[in-house]
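Section 3.1: Structural characterization of target chains.
Under the original work plan, the team committed to producing a structural model for every single-chain target entering the pipeline before any wet-lab resources were allocated. The record below documents one such target. The sequence was received from the expression subgroup and is listed exactly as submitted; it comprises 262 residues.
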Amino acid sequence: MTTLDYLGHIRTESQRFLAVLGDVDPRAHVPSCPDWDAEDLLWHLAEVQWFWASVVEGRLQHVDGVEGPDRPADRERLLSFMAEQSDRLVTVLGAADPTEQVYMWAEDKAVGYIRRRQAHEALIHRLDAELAAGTVTPLDPALASDGVHETLAVMFGGCPPWGTFTPSGTQVEVVAEDTGLVVPVALGRFTGTDPASGTAYDEPDVSVSAADPTAPAHATVRGTADDLDAWLWHRRNDSLLHKDGDPGVLAAFTAVLAQPLT
């Protein structure tokens, strides 16, 4: 996973994103983001790329008080802003030491992880743009395979320092058949109280770090990296995936994955 050219993928996926949205009616509905039209999607990725470029450029350790840019008032300026921020993000990330620590909501606060996260951000939103346009092209298999791991390990399986994941003793194996990726995923329960909000949690969860790669899987989910990544991100249904094993384990696993990704 560490050999991927994340900066190249940010550039390529962002360019495709811009090209697709440049030809779409700005009021076109984005089916994978029901509250957005194409122009909202364009602004979202532009703002996200502005934010992370600003974090890395300023070597920020927190983002309290950071004020975002104003949304451009017309489409052409919005397209230009997106192009500018995409170029800026690649430049800033490329100039920074990938081991340097900056603000990041995830446990891994290295610039290198921001490179990875932003490659997947651009990839999935490129897919959103294509869904709005009605012309979907394949996801890069290597990047999608890395996305399967990142989504399971971080987006669903991340555990904050104030929480605890307790394995239930059951595991699912997620297999990308075209790339050879195999991700063992432990099922269990997440408990803890967020000190910032005071919210207490006690709910089903999954964890990659708590899984035992030598233990037999109680169920498996197989497919191409493209289909798995899009499914995990709620951009595609599971009709092209193959599920085998204990029905109860599969049901518990997919119930956790049905939760919103924020």
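The chain has two domains: 6-137, 142-257.
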